[in-house]
Design goal:
Length: 352
């Protein structure tokens, strides 16, 4: 039996698909240009920014501006903050209590005499510290457990999956309150409160990383490239660290950013309920919102508006970055650039 060679696809005019060939050539040129780009242009966020267009670029740029502003404020707060977070006087003169915004206090003062602007600025350092500790710890633990569970399988996999499902039964805020009481007795210094919030977030969100990585590893370990690595005698540690880990972490940026915003919200909730950081140990937005509740009924709006606005902007910036990166990683959600027609093709189209 003779098998005939398939003919190339033809276009409307009988030509061998010039539009399809042009599209493939353009896509190949883009991939080649990306592979030869400098290393700093291939970094995750920068590469996503170069690929984004339209609304996706606007969302990503807005999120990056907010996140960079949060990080720079946390880094430079000793320089840009007019007063300390617990300072109530300067040169022997006490600050006014519940003072309206003025030249000396641009955002006013609280009922205890704290400067609102200084408290908001110093609160960024507390928020960033909790976010970094909680997310990094849950990321490492969840990825490691998911990698081992999905690759080894058996009774270890069943036990870890059962534990992950059991943790989901606990409300995250209730678990955070319990952890805060166990660690610091409900009121703590700066690092005690940060550790309480970070541990609560870690315990709650480790199962998310675990389940995502485990599902990807279970799927990938049956792929031919993993089987080939086993045949040539590659060790299990190298297979998990090189072949599986690199291909199982594509969805982690979105979870990472969502957990970062959840860490900020959990810290604010702990402070609002009175289980957070003492006001003389560190500035915390949730505590300031709690103290501002009684001010709202008296028409004093500045003590609660600006801490709440800081929480909203921080969470919004982190969420926008995560959603934009997730959309750009998914070909089904990615908005592609409109390719400019080639001069020769444009001339032929105009002539016809």
């Amino acid at each position: 039996m003779t098998i005939s060679t398939p003919e190339p696809p033809t276009g409307p005019g009988g030509a061998a698909g010039p539009a399809a060939d042009a599209a493939v050539a353009a896509e190949s040129a883009i991939v080649a240009a990306r592979s030869h780009a400098p290393w700093y242009l291939r970094l995750p966020v920068i590469s996503h920014l170069r690929r984004s267009v339209g609304l996706q670029r606007g969302m990503l740029v807005t999120g990056l501006v907010l996140v960079l502003g949060l990080l720079l404020t946390a880094l430079l707060v000793p320089i840009i903050a007019p007063y300390g977070f617990a300072q109530t006087s300067v040169d022997g003169a006490a600050f006014p209590t519940q003072g309206a915004p003025s030249a000396a206090h641009p955002l006013g003062t609280t009922v205890t005499g704290f400067d609102v602007l200084s408290r908001v600025l110093w609160g960024t350092r507390t928020a960033v510290a909790v976010m970094a500790c909680a997310v990094v710890a849950s990321l490492f633990l969840g990825v490691a457990l998911g990698l081992v569970s999905g690759y080894v399988g058996g009774w270890l996999d069943r036990v870890l999956v059962m534990l992950a499902d059991a943790i989901y039964a606990f409300p995250s805020l209730l678990l955070a309150i319990v952890m805060a009481i166990v660690i610091s007795g409900g009121q703590s210094n700066a690092w005690g409160g940060i550790l309480a919030a970070a541990l609560s977030i870690t315990v709650v969100f480790v199962p998310q990383y675990f389940r995502v990585i485990r599902a990807e590893v279970v799927r990938l370990k049956a792929e031919p490239f993993v089987e080939a690595a086993k045949v040539v005698g590659t060790g299990h540690g190298r297979i998990m660290g090189t072949h599986l880990l690199r291909n199982a972490t594509r969805t982690l940026p979105l979870i990472f950013t969502l957990n970062s915003s959840e860490a900020i919200l959990t810290l604010a909730a702990l402070g609002f309920l009175g289980f957070g950081i003492e006001p003389t140990s560190a500035a915390e937005w949730g505590y300031d919102l709690n103290r501002a509740m009684s001010d709202a009924t008296s028409g004093i709006w500045w003590t609660g508006l600006f801490p709440g606005l800081a929480i909203v902007l921080a969470v919004l910036g982190v969420t926008l970055v995560g959603e934009s990166v997730n959309d750009l990683n998914d070909p089904r959600l990615r908005t592609r650039r409109a390719r400019r027609p080639r001069p020769a093709a444009a001339a032929r189209k105009a002539a016809s």
